[in-house]
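lol so apparently i was supposed to do this last week
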Amino acid sequence: MNPLRSSVLSALLPPGVVVVGTRVGLPVLAMATLRLSSSSSFFAYQQQKVGLTAPQRPPSSFASTSPPPPLVVCSIPDRHHLPLSHSSAEASSGRISLGFCTRQSVGFCTRQQSWNRNLAVVAAAASVTEVGGGGSSSTISREEVVREDDPTNNVPDTVFGKIGLQLHNRKSHPLGILKNAIYSYFDETFPGVFHKVDNLLPIVSVKANFDDVLTPPDHVSRSYNDTYYVTADTVLRCHTSAHQAELLRQGLTHFLVTGDVYRRDAIDATHYPVFHQMEGLRVFTQQEWEAAGMDGTALAAQELKKTLEGLARHLFGDVQMRWVDTYFPFTDPSYELEIFFQGKWMEVLGCGVTEQQILCNNGCAGTTAWAFGLGLERLAMVLFDIPDIRLFWSNDSRFTSQFKSGQLGTKFKSFSKYPPCYKDISFWISDEFSENNLCEIVRGIAGDLVEEVVLIDEFTNPKKGKTSHCYRIAYRSMERSLTDDEINALQAEVRQQVESKLKITLR
Ligand code: DAH
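anyway here it is w/ 3,4-dihydroxyphenylalanine bound
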C-alpha cells in the first residue's frame, strides 16, 4: 500500500480501525455497495461492513462472550478485464436426496457428516420416521436447535423450520438445477475427479466453522449478531468452508460441497437468513507443479483462474469477466470473480490459494490447493430471472412447475404481483440496538410475508442525547393478497415484541 495513502486513510478512520492489505483506494462507504445477498464473499464483506457501523451486540437475552471486534478495512481490488468466448450450459441430472422436516424435528441423509453421528431420517408429519440411507440413524429435535432458555442460543423457530429442506437436492428446483449444472461442468472438465458432497449436517462446531479456516478470534462473523449459535461451541454453518478441513482430513483432495448456510441479516429481496453455497477445493502435489515448471502457489492460482473462468462461461455464456483482489482468512492470494452481466458487474464467487496452515493442519503438508465458494441463490436469481429470494422457498406450483431438471436459465414468469403494504415503526434506540435483531423479530412474526425492512429516517435529539430510528416494513405475499386486518395484526405484534425484546422506546 502506498504509505502516504495508508496514513492519510488511517487518520480518517475511527480509533480501532485497521487498514489491511496492499491497496486501499475506495472510500469505505463505497464498499458497502458491493454487498449482495447469498454472497460468497461474506468474510471479505464483513471486513468492509464493520467500517460502516459499530459492532453490534447480541440482544439482551443473548449472552455474548466475545469482545467487540476491531474494525478492519480490507484491500481494494485490482481489476482485470478478460474477454471470453461462449460455451453453453449442459443439461445435467443428479440424484435427489430429499430431507424432510416438520417443525418438531428434521432429518438428513448423509454419507459423511461433521457431527460424529450418522443421520438418515425422514420426519413424518407427526412422528419421526426412519428411512434408508446407510448406517445408523438419528433425528434432530427442535429442542436441540432452538433453546429458548439458553442465553447462548439465538436460533429462532423460523430458521429451525428450514433445516433439512435441502432445496439444493431437488432436481427440478432452480437451486438443484444450478448445482447439477456446476457438477456437469466439473464432470466434463475433470471426468471422475471431483468428489461431490451435498448432505452434510448444517450444525457444525465453532472450530470447524471458524477456527479450522483461520477466522481470527475477534472477526465480526463470529458475533451473535451475525451467526446463529446453537450452543457456545456449535453454530448453524455460515459458509460451506466449514467443511474444508474435515474433508481434507478424510483424504479428499478434489471436492465440491453444497449445502444450506445460515446468517443473521437484513430483510430485502436478496437477503434471507438461509441460503445455499457450493464450495470447491483442489489439492496439487509437488510432482504436479514440478511437471508444470512452476511453483506450487503459482500453479494453484493459474489453475484456479482457468477452472473458474470455464465455470462462469459454462453458466453464463460469452461474458466479460474480471478478477478482483480481496481478502479471506483462508486464502492467500484471494480473489473474487466478477462477470459483466445484464449491464452491470456482478460478483460470482470468492476464491483463492488455500493457506498453507489449513493444508498442514489437515494431513496435506507439502501440497498447495485452490478453493472457491459461491452463493447459489445469487446466481440462480440472475440465471432464472427470479426477483425475490423468498420465492426459492415457495411450494406454490405456479413457481415450482416452471422449472425442469437439467434446464438451466428458464426465465421465471411472475404469476402475479400482489401489492405491498407499508407500515412504519419509530423508536428511540439504545446502545444495544441491532438491525439484525429487529429483522429477526419481524421475520419471526410475519415469516415470508415480510419483503423488506428499511431504515427511512434517523435523527439524534441533542438535548436528550437519544437517537430515533424509523423503519418502513413492506409486507407482501408472493402468492396472495393480504387483508388490512391481517397486516394490522402483524404490525401490532411487531410493535409489541420490538418493545418488549429490544430495549427500545416506541415513539
Ligand atoms: N466462505 C466464503 C464466504 O462465505 C467464500 C469463499 C471464499 C470460500 C474464498 C472459499 C474461498 O473456499 O477460497 O464468504
